[in-house]
Amino acid sequence: MSAVILDGAMVHYEALGRGRPIVFLHGWVGSWRYWINAMQAASTSFRAYAVDLFGFGDRDRSKTQYAVEKQAEMLGRFLDNLGIGKIALVGHDLGALVGFHYLKNRHESVDRMMAINVPLNYELLVTRMRTTPASDLAEWLTGRQPEAMTALSDASKTDPEAVSVSMSSLHAYGIFPEVRNFGVPCLFVYGANNPAFTSAPSLDSVLPTHMHQINFENSGHFPMLDNVPQFNRLLVDFLALDSGVSPTELQMKEEWKRRVR
Length: 261
What we know:
Oligomer: single chain
CATH superfamily: Alpha/Beta hydrolase fold, catalytic domain
Mean pLDDT: 91
Strand content: 15-25%
Number of helices: 11
Number of strands: 8
Structural class: alpha/beta
Distance between the termini: 38 Å
Strand order of the largest sheet: 1-2-4-3-5-6-7-8
Low-confidence stretches: 255-261
Largest sheet: 8 strands, mixed
């Protein structure tokens, strides 16, 4: 286990590989642990970091830091402490929201971002996501599949207040209008069979040219666990794009299109 102390609070993280930095941010259910396969895929060309947010996994219960904005400030301090410059960001639900807030404050420090099953408004989340303990959500969202449950074994460590406070941040206002025009390439990934959402998002009509959406037809809330080879291939393809290139270029790859259908 690796950790740094920031303003008196322990920040737990894991790192793998060498190269340009990529940061993985987990969601409301679980911890850094479910990124292991994706970190291994990225680590062939990148130095992959996975960070536990406040109130999750092996992380301090600093209740004043649970708001999404505070989590994003922590990410900035963490990167500064380790001397990490421009990064690629991969965030899942809550982690993507934290990533967007970081992008709002430091867009010049983000080379590209992948946002996975991110709810861009509070109403998109079903009531069960807002009210059920994380350990029960892990069972529901994965259908108790053994490998997925192992990857989400830290769900029981979640402070329920960390979930409720961060969801209140989402309810307060939408972050997407504040970050859509920074020009940072962003790929939205959604599972078509995601029970956490009231309906499957369709962003095609509102995305600028540097953003793109891809749906995994046979995936739910955790595409990195439901479809490991396909997700990791998409991740590697996205990271392989030249800096500044729109992820819409991914749809031109017939080999990839056959993989996701």
